[in-house]
Design a protein that fits this description.
single chain; Rossmann fold; seven-stranded mixed β-sheet; about 15% strand; binds NADPH dihydro-nicotinamide-adenine-dinucleotide phosphate; binds (2Z)-2-iminopentanedioic acid
């Protein structure tokens, strides 16, 4: 494989798909040596087949507002690769959604799902629908219209969607209801379901918990722990919430959280009722960070700024892609940050990652560090198949073990002859090899 040549071809074929091209380049740069040492990959054109989705489904989603206005959004499902299991990945409802962002997310999902040790292929979907400010019944009508197109393309052994930005338990409920009505079956077709109808304990917290478990492993490798460390978290959503809970439980102090409108700095720590308040604010669907500082005296709001300017030991970017750039990374390093673990998908730009790596900062790449969410989705699928419900402890222990196994895989494939570990390279190679070998076994299809 010649990475530059391949990237040139992809850039011509998929002009303007910036995020997709960024995600592909990162993986190709990491795996090029291993790929070229194994000529069977080249002869089966594994990489040319892996960078293109199996299929992309696009559909229109018409829906009616409470006051009778008819709107039309775009809906997508990108089924990327099912070499090791059914297509699996979240649905994102956010105005920024387009084909490039869903292709980047679906591509990343292939390797992330491979790392989980579970039999899950890669996919992503969503819509440019903006849930902010919409009423409950508008959300319901939108979800129902979306599922009217999606339902016959998915299934518990075919493609199993879940949540992502803008899609939480409420949306999964409405989507599931419509699926059940159309398919006339009650199966584990979506994950992140409610606990009374097939959902798994710990799934809501799983991505954030997993991210902190991964950070714990990164630190342990350097003889460090979370105890007494200060943490900055971006985002104010599902992943950020779980990360804040687990980091606090393991003895760290979360001093910042953020939203698109700015960040909250709370030197006393964002814990207990403050984390509960995060949940309440999330449910309102409005711009949410600022009200926190009105509620708690210790929290100060910094409008329009990012939490990466603070002096912290650990940074957990848990909001959205490319939210942490080179300048942010330099600031973190300057202030003595020792560990960055990505809760969001591709939150750090390539230039920011270079800064971390050049300064020996412990860096947990998204496809490893945030795999706990989809891994627990896999555990939900297992429980659905077995018609069983595991205890909280059982799911959490399995999640913990999976994160530890992912960490070990990164070390195995990312360690150089001097003992330095490149976790990004390790994650990409470990994730790739399993999928590539499955594709070799299954022939050219
Ligand atoms: P949510 O919709 O629950 O939360 C996203 C949060 O990020 C919201 O508080 C949002 O604020 C905020 N946000 C959006 N843009 C910015 C920005 N530029 N700066 C700061 N905050 C911002 O989504 P999730 O928590 O589920 O997802 C967050 C990230 O984690 C995404 O990258 C997602 O792909 C990834 N992820 C999610 C998993 C899951 O299981 N849910 C699993 C693995 C990864 P607002 O609502 O005001 O826009
Ligand atoms: O990015 C992700 O891994 C998710 N949004 C979770 C996907 C899933 O199928 O649970």
């Amino acid at each position: 494989m010649n990475v530059d040549k391949l990237m040139n071809e992809l850039e011509k074929k998929h002009q303007g798909e910036v995020e997709y091209l960024q995600a592909v380049r990162e993986v190709l740069d990491s795996i090029a040596d291993v790929y070229n040492e194994n000529p069977q990959f080249e002869s089966a054109a594994i990489i040319e087949r892996l960078v293109e989705p199996d299929r992309i489904l696009t559909f229109k989603v018409p829906w009616i507002t409470d006051n009778g206005q008819v709107n039309v959004n775009l809906g997508y499902r990108v089924q990327f690769n099912n070499a090791i299991g059914p297509y699996k990945g979240g649905l994102r409802f956010h105005p920024s959604v387009n084909l490039s962002s869903l292709k980047f997310l679906g591509f990343e999902q292939i390797f992330k799902n491979s790392l989980t040790t579970l039999p899950l292929g890669g996919a992503k979907g969503g819509s440019d629908f903006n849930p902010k400010g919409k009423s409950d019944s508008e959300i319901m009508r939108f979800c129902q219209s979306f599922m009217t197109e999606l339902w016959n393309l998915i299934g518990p052994e075919t493609d199993v969607p879940a949540g992502d930005i803008g899609v939480g338990a409420r949306e999964i409920g409405y989507l599931y209801g419509m699926y059940k009505k159309l398919a006339k079956e009650n199966t584990g077709v979506l994950t992140g379901k409610g606990l009374n109808w097939g959902g798994s304990l710990v799934r809501p917290e799983a991505t954030g918990f997993g991210n902190v478990y991964f950070a714990k492993e990164l630190l342990a490798n350097k003889g460090e722990s979370l105890e007494g460390k200060t943490v900055a978290i971006s985002g104010f959503g599902n992943v950020a919430w779980g990360a804040a809970l687990k980091a606090t439980e393991l003895g760290a102090k979360v001093i910042a959280i953020s939203g698109p409108d700015g960040y909250i700095y709370d030197p006393e720590g964002i814990k207990g009722e403050k984390i509960d308040f995060m949940l309440e604010l999330r449910a309102t669907n409005e711009d949410i960070v600022q009200p926190f500082s009105y509620e708690f005296d210790s929290g100060q709001f910094y409008e329009g700024r990012k939490p990466w300017e603070l002096k912290v030991d650990i940074a957990l970017p848990c909001a959205i892609q490319n939210e942490l750039n080179k300048e942010d990374a330099e600031k973190l390093v300057e202030n003595g940050c020792m560990c960055v673990s990505e809760g969001a998908n591709m939150p750090c730009t390539p230039e920011a990652i270079d800064v971390f790596q050049n300064n020996n900062i412990l860096f947990g790449p998204a496809k490893a560090a945030n795999a706990g969410g989809v891994a627990t989705s896999g555990l939900e699928m297992t429980q659905n198949s077995m018609k069983l419900h595991w205890s909280r402890n059982e799911v959490d222990q399995r999640l913990h073990k999976i994160m530890s196994d992912i960490h070990n895989a990164c070390v195995e494939y990312g360690k150089d002859e001097n003992g330095n570990i490149d976790y990004m390279k390790g994650a990409n190679i470990a994730g790739f090899l399993k999928v590539a070998n499955a594709m070799l076994d299954q022939g050219v299809i």
